[in-house]
């Protein structure tokens, strides 16, 4: 009888030990997954902070570049980098009328930006806001007697030759109008988007027809 009771007690102790080991194992598993979740959350926050720091750094760098280039010949110089468009899978263009910038994007990722002049902020000379595309029409130069201005390296994005990306203005003889050219970076056009001379030339030679354009 005592031997039987002793066996029962031994079995209880054995099962108790097994139960304790199982509970300890479950505790460690739960702790492991909680730690990994917390670490992932920390990593995500760190990633967002790094993106914000990178954006702030890029903005400061661009502002410094603008300050360096703000001389009388500013409009004769590149205001952004010229990427290899073959490396861009989904090219689209954002025109920011508030900050006077044209951004080239790959999906939502910024590739480069250029300093521009959009329309003077009145009813007749606003650059139209909305979604457009680069149209078939483009050319080396034009002249509009109505405004006594022309430009070089023009590319249409609305109304087939009405609203354009183009260089800073030229006079009837094809000479750049320096007083107008030096307004680059401020609203100054009749609705078109003015670019520096090399920026407009690169844009004219490289941006394909059909590229989406958003003006905000």
Give a short overview:
The chain has helices spanning 2-69, 178-181, 197-206; strands at 91-96, 101-106, 109-117, 130-133, 138-144, 149-158, 163-167, 193-195, 212-215.
Task: Describe the fold and architecture.
This protein is α+β, with helices and mostly antiparallel strands and 216 residues long. The chain is built from 3 helices and 9 strands; from the N terminus they run αβββββββαβαβ. It has helices at residues 2-69, 178-181, 197-206, and strands spanning 91-96, 101-106, 109-117, 130-133, 138-144, 149-158, 163-167, 193-195, 212-215. A 9-stranded mixed β-sheet has the order 4-9-1-2-3-8-7-6-5. The protein starts with a helix and ends with a strand.
List keywords for this structure.
216 residues, alpha+beta, nine-stranded mixed beta sheet, 25% strand, rod-shaped
Secondary structure elements and pairings:
Elements: H1 2-69, E1 91-96, E2 101-106, E3 109-117, E4 130-133, E5 138-144, E6 149-158, E7 163-167, H2 178-181, E8 193-195, H3 197-206, E9 212-215
Parallel strand pairs: 1-9, 7-8
Antiparallel strand pairs: 1-2, 2-3, 3-8, 4-9, 5-6, 6-7
Separation, N- and C-terminal Cα atoms: 92 Å
Give the number of DSSP strands: 9
The poorly predicted ranges are 40-56
Structural class: alpha+beta
The number of helical elements comes to 3
Shape: rod-shaped
């Amino acid at each position: 009888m005592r031997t039987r009771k002793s066996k029962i007690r031994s079995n209880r102790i054995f099962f108790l030990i097994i139960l304790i080991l199982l509970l300890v194992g479950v505790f460690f598993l739960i702790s492991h997954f909680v730690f990994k979740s917390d670490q992932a959350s920390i990593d995500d926050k760190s990633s967002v902070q790094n993106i914000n720091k990178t954006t702030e750094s890029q903005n400061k760098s661009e502002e410094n570049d603008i300050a360096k280039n703000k001389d009388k010949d500013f409009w004769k110089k590149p205001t952004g980098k010229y990427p290899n468009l073959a490396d861009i899978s989904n090219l689209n263009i954002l025109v920011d009328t508030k900050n006077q910038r044209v951004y080239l994007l790959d999906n939502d990722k910024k590739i480069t930006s250029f300093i521009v002049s959009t329309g003077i902020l009145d009813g007749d000379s606003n650059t139209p806001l909305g979604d457009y595309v680069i149209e078939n029409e483009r050319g080396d130069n034009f002249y509009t007697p109505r405004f006594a201005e022309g430009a070089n390296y023009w590319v249409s994005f609305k109304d087939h030759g009405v609203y354009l990306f183009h260089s800073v203005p030229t006079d009837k003889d094809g000479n750049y109008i320096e007083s107008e050219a030096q307004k680059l970076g401020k609203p100054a056009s009749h609705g078109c988007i003015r670019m520096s001379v090399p920026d407009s030339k690169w844009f004219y030679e490289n941006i394909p027809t059909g590229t989406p354009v958003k003006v905000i």
